[in-house]
Design goal:
alpha+beta; 4-stranded antiparallel sheet; 230 residues
Length: 230
């Protein structure tokens, strides 16, 4: 493998600066077109429910600890119930949504903070109002159905969902920065390959290095001279 002359490579890169600029401009342009006209905005809204404790928990520390442990175990079960057909089909019916259970199921995510009794119900949608309405309706239906399933009332909604009008998946400035970096790296990669496989002689010093003999003279090339013209 031939040794790469860093000085020559740097000069070669400088001579191809227009190619780098072209790649960056095309990359940024493609990013803007994709972000503004192709990429579909997605909105997120969430509501939070908490598992309540029994009324006599405050007077008995043992009961309090037992309630906390029981509720934390119930959280995992409740997370699955929230995304069940029983809950989501009722939400679809209540809001008259034109979608299947599978579609709504994929829009909903349920999480909880470790070692807490809080359950966060988040909804992603292409419509910000739908995301808010669905999240709130899931919380309401879930709270009501839990009473029927377990015959207890141990859920309270502590945060209702608000409409978030800023899409979470589109960040034009950030995407432009990424496109500039990617375009620059891609252009540099192509130029490096061009340089590496370029076998033309670029200087008299390179001739001396390759053949091991000194150059006696250099004849300048003047493309304006034709035939016998001087």
């Amino acid at each position: 493998m031939e040794e790469v002359n860093l000085k020559e490579m740097f000069s070669y890169f400088l001579s191809k600066y227009l190619l780098i600029i072209l790649f960056v401009v095309l990359g940024v342009g493609a990013c803007i077109v994709y972000s503004l006209f192709i990429q579909k905005p997605m909105y997120n809204s969430y509501t939070t429910v908490v598992l309540a404790r029994s009324s006599d928990s405050t007077s008995n520390s043992g009961t309090l600890q037992s309630d906390v442990t029981t509720n934390q175990k119930l959280v995992s079960t409740y997370r699955e119930i929230i995304k069940s057909r029983r809950i989501l089909n009722q939400v679809i019916s209540n809001l008259d949504l034109n979608m299947s259970y599978e579609t709504l199921h994929n829009m909903v995510s349920v999480t909880n903070e470790k070692d807490t009794e809080l359950i966060k119900i988040a909804v992603n949608s292409q419509n910000s109002k739908d995301a808010k309405d669905i999240a709130n309706e899931i919380a309401k239906v879930f709270s009501k159905e839990i009473e029927s399933i377990y015959e207890i009332k141990n859920l309270s909604i502590i945060d209702y969902a608000d409409e978030n009008t800023t899409p979470y998946n589109i960040n034009v400035p950030k995407q432009m920065v990424i496109s500039v970096l990617v375009s620059f790296v891609l252009a540099c990669g192509i130029i490096f390959v061009m340089f590496y496989f370029d076998t033309t002689i670029k200087s008299s010093e390179e001739i001396e290095e390759k053949i091991g003999l000194p150059v006696l003279g250099v004849v300048p090339f003047k493309p304006t001279l034709k035939g016998g013209n001087k």
